[in-house]
């Protein structure tokens, strides 16, 4: 959730981390601001830049424009359906409100999903029938789901100062998200029917954008320093993995990044790697 910053002198690195080999690979370095990698099962990674969408072939890592038709003010909340046929896109309207669309991956045909806005897409259920997103409803941030068959919205949360980054677990039983209460941003999870809300991390860092692994044994997330307001870019942050078997948290990498690094699902759907964006001056 953020407009793009232009005229930046930073370099942007698309990096892959292999959790089994514990190794990093820089796939692409560019002067162009790129954000929020999604990993397609055909080994293509999608990123947004300056309101547009680009794809990167892992075997030939260059930025290739992906035509999204009339949607040319995209923000960094986008993703891919489990079967790989549909893109979910969040596009800012003329009033700056984010609206969610779905698009056939091979055409420019787009269908508007959300009629109540702003809404920022963040995740899709394993069966592809339900999306989850953060929204502003009655001046309050909340986590919502939307049934693509019945075209109905369901508000899952209340009582948070801010919520963001909802993502489904691989088995579809949980929606993970970050939520702020009492000045602390922690990870939470909730069932898709709005029951069993549970806090999963506890200070002192400000924890954002949880992404359960395809094997459902770990959750990737990013931490800002204590007291950080919002999720700014160009900050010293930490990539972390929460082991769901023993609840141990491991710091994978300390780096310069933040906004745009892992805003949306970024795991390789086939396994044990994920992609993120790192900044370099």
Task: Provide an overview of this structure.
The structure is a single chain. This protein is an all-beta fold. It has a single domain, classed as Neuraminidase. It is 0% helix and 53% strand. It has strands spanning 11-18, 23-30, 35-39, 44-49, 52-57, 60-66, 79-80, 86-92, 98-104, 110-112, 119-124, 130-137, 140-147, 152-155, 162-168, 175-181, 184-190, 198-199, 206-212, 218-224, 235-243, 249-257, 273-280. It has a 4-stranded antiparallel β-sheet, with no helix packed on it. Strands 7-8-9-10 form a 4-stranded antiparallel β-sheet, with no helix packed on it. Strand 8 and strand 9 (98-104) form a beta hairpin. The model is unreliable at 1-6 (pLDDT under 50).
**What is the class in the CATH system?**
Mainly Beta
The level of helicity is under 10%
Contiguous runs where pLDDT drops below 50 for at least 5 residues: 1-6
What is the number of beta strands? 23
Strand content: over 45%
Summed over residues and divided by their number, the pLDDT gives a mean of: 96
Helix-strand string:
EEEEEEEEEEEEEEEEEEEEEEE
Q: How far is it from the N-terminal to the C-terminal residue, by CA?
A: 23 Å
| Strand order, sheet with most strands | 3-4-5-6
Rg measurement, Å: 17 Å
Keywords:
281 residues; mainly beta; Neuraminidase; four-stranded antiparallel β-sheet; 53% strand; globular; disordered N terminus
Concise summary:
This protein is mostly beta strands and 281 residues long.
């Amino acid at each position: 959730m953020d407009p793009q910053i232009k005229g930046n002198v930073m370099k942007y690195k698309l990096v892959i981390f292999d959790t089994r080999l514990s190794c990093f690979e820089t796939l692409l370095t560019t002067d162009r601001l790129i954000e929020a990698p999604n990993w397609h099962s055909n080994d293509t990674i999608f990123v947004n830049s300056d309101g547009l969408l680009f794809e990167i072939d892992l075997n030939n890592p260059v930025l290739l424009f992906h035509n999204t038709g009339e949607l040319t003010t995209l923000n960094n909340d986008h993703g891919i359906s489990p079967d790989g046929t549909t893109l979910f896109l969040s596009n800012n309207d003329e009033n700056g409100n984010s609206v969610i669309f779905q698009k056939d991956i091979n055409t420019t045909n787009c269908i508007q999903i959300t009629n109540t806005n702003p809404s920022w897409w963040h995740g899709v259920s394993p069966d592809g029938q339900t999306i989850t997103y953060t929204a502003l409803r009655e001046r309050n941030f909340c986590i919502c789901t939307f049934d693509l068959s019945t075209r109905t919205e369901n508000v899952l949360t209340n009582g948070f100062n801010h919520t963001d980054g909802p993502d489904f677990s691989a088995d579809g039983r949980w929606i993970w998200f970050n939520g702020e209460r009492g000045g602390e941003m922690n990870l939470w999870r909730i069932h898709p029917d709005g029951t069993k809300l549970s806090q999963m991390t506890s200070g002192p860092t400000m924890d954002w954008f949880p992404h359960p692994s395809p094997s459902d044994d770990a959750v990737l997330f990013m931490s800002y320093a204590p007291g950080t307001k919002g999720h700014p870019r160009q900050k010293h942050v930490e990539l972390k993995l929460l082991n769901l078997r023993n609840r141990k948290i491991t710091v994978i990498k300390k780096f310069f990044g933040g906004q745009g690094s892992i805003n949306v699902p970024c795991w390789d759907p086939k396994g044990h790697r994920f992609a993120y964006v790192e900044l370099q001056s």
